[in-house]
Amino acid sequence: MNRRSFLGKAAVGVAATGLASTISSPVFALAKKKGIAMPIGFQSYVFREEISNQPHETMSRLASYGYKNVEWCSPKGYQGPFTPLVKYSGKELKKITNDAGLETTSCHFTWQEITDDASLAERIEFANQLGLKCMVCSGGLGAKTADEIKKRCDQMNHVGEMVKKGGMIAGYHNHNGEFDEKIDGRPQYDIMLEHLDASLVKMQFQVAAITSGYKAQDYFRKFPGRFISAHLQDYSPSDNTKEVVMGTGIVDWKDFFVAAKTGGLKYVFVEMESDPSIMQGCANYLKEIS
């Protein structure tokens, strides 16, 4: 089960839900000049079984690829894939992560975990133990009407206020549904951006939206400073349902990283759900351009 399928099941009733070996030196120089290089990260859900059963060994292997940063999924919210890790405190998970040579700046939390104040307080404590900079809500704002989206955005703004008091930044992660499912001809994502408080909730853009016709860099430029991070995917030019090594697909990464500074990005996390074997190739590509 991929992460999107997992979240869809978890949120029932809650929300609608060939390696490129080189890159031109001018692009590399531009990245350095613009200061948009950022630590290479990966999303832990891709390796959920391996991490759950052998967390240190698996993350040490990923660190050897060149990854520096891991985005966790909250074991409490993602029980099933991460049940074996529920026993660990945030401090213990932080130690496992750091001992493998990785930092952890971000973590996904489910809508159910963070929209109850008592649960949210406990999750903020866990997040601080883990050493997070960002607490990212993994979905839940989608709805059938604009009014319902606004209501849920108000809830998310409250979460953002509490997370800010806890010393971190709240984020919201999109899926393709926020673009595919429209209200009055507009993507739901655009309505969310109108109602989320930019000072309390930043966005984590899933580049997979390109398969629905929406480019991350267009949103970075249209909504400057609204984004904190992104999930990186790339897709075959002949079949946009097939994930491929970054730099060999349909995403214009040069333009993406140029626009990233405007968008406000601080972190990127590779998330190749269908084929984890290409994660090493993606790390190699990102090392060349960062």
UniProtKB/TrEMBL annotation:
Signal peptide start-end: 1-29
PROSITE patterns referenced in this protein's UniProt entry, alphabetically: TAT
Xylose isomerase-like TIM barrel domain location: 61-276
SUPFAM superfamilies linked to this entry: Xylose isomerase-like (SSF51658)
UniProt entry keywords in alphabetical sequence: Signal
NCBIfam families linked to this entry: TAT_signal_seq
Name of the protein in its database record: TIM barrel protein
